[in-house]
Amino acid sequence: MRKKLMSFILVILVLLLGLNTSFFNYSVVYADGDETSEPDDDCDKTCRLNRAREKQKELEAEMAKAKENYDEYMSLASKFAKETEALEAEIAELVPQIEDLTTKIDILETSIAEKEKLVEELNERVLNRMADAQGTMHFNPYLDFLLGSKGFADLIRRIYGIEAINAKEENDREELAEIILALQTEKAELDTVREELENKKVDLEIKQAEAEQMRSYYVEAARIADEEIDDYRNQIDEQIAIQTSISFDIEDLLNMDPVYGFTSPVPGSHISAGFPYYPASFGGGVHLGVDYAAKVGTTIYAPADGVIIISDDNCATYGYLGNSCGGAGGGVSYGGNQLYMLCSVNGTIYALTFSHLYSGSVHAVGVVTQGTAIARVGSSGNSTGPHCHIEMYYLGEGENEDIPTYINALNSGRYSLSFNCGWGSAALANICSNKGRAPCRLNGADYLPH
Fold this sequence. Notes:
CATH class of the largest domain: Mainly Alpha
Strand content: 5-15%
Shape: rod-shaped
Distance between the termini: 74 Å
Number of helices: 7
Radius of gyration: 46 Å
CATH topology of the largest domain: Helix Hairpins
Largest sheet: 8 strands, antiparallel
CATH architecture of the largest domain: Orthogonal Bundle
């Protein structure tokens, strides 16, 4: 197992070293080319925006690759963690075994010491008895002893006495032999147990070292994954800022005159589903926007001066009920082709989202003026008929110069794609009439004519 484990570790090290040099191995992608190159004066704003779109596609490809590598790192980290757990389990089994062996050695050593002491006592007793007998016996101690009897009865007693002495010595000798045999057996067992103990200790040290090494690999893999994904996020944030700055000139927004009212986003349409519930004829249920129904291809206009901050055009014009298409370009799933727009009207900052748009008609990210064609009516994503689903949010008081603050809030993640107002039934608590403060959801029909 150890050879297999060490081979696995070597393979992992090679992978780590290889991945560490290639994982997310790209620099910030600048829309105008290499960061050290001079701007191309012949490339106008539309040209640079097209370049930015191409770079965004490259970045999205890098993003997909980065996620695969991130998943691979975390998979390695998970393997390291499992290996560590297995080693720690083996260590946990070894520790009590070592403790038991140590206790057994202590018992054997005590028993051996007691037996050695008893052997010495018995041996000394036998030797002393033999010495005493030799001191009083001449030619044949037993014969002299018997001839010295004073009669038959005395002779019988002496014979019995000799037998008793011999029996005692024989018992002592047998006991001594048994003890010596037991002593030898316990000493042999002690040697075996000591050897087993040493082997267990060596095994424990090896497994502890392996576990520690495996922990370090796990920590390192997780650290690399986290650092690389953080680096990726930082670079994507920079890329978003670069694309935003190329897509529109913030000065264009600041130089616009204030707008004091909304115009119709879908002239000639009718509202087929209102806010915040579907009509009973649609089966009821939460509906967080207003559906402006119109023929497929009907032009949708910017209802105010503002900034398109998300342009998601990745779905077919026609979807169906339950179609999850949407979100590949930054929007949300099921929304089909989408636009996200920020604007200031009468000193208030609003966010507007337009969903289920016609494929290929979605306006690019950038500053737009009131009345600009920004898309056409479609039925993409989760849709059963042509309409433009518009959701409206109140973000707070502010003028055009305050809009970049909200763009940064969305790009940095401080705002979610629902502008922190949630989805489904949970979003009902964030309707402005219920919540009473920004950010909150508004009924677009109260603000956008049709």
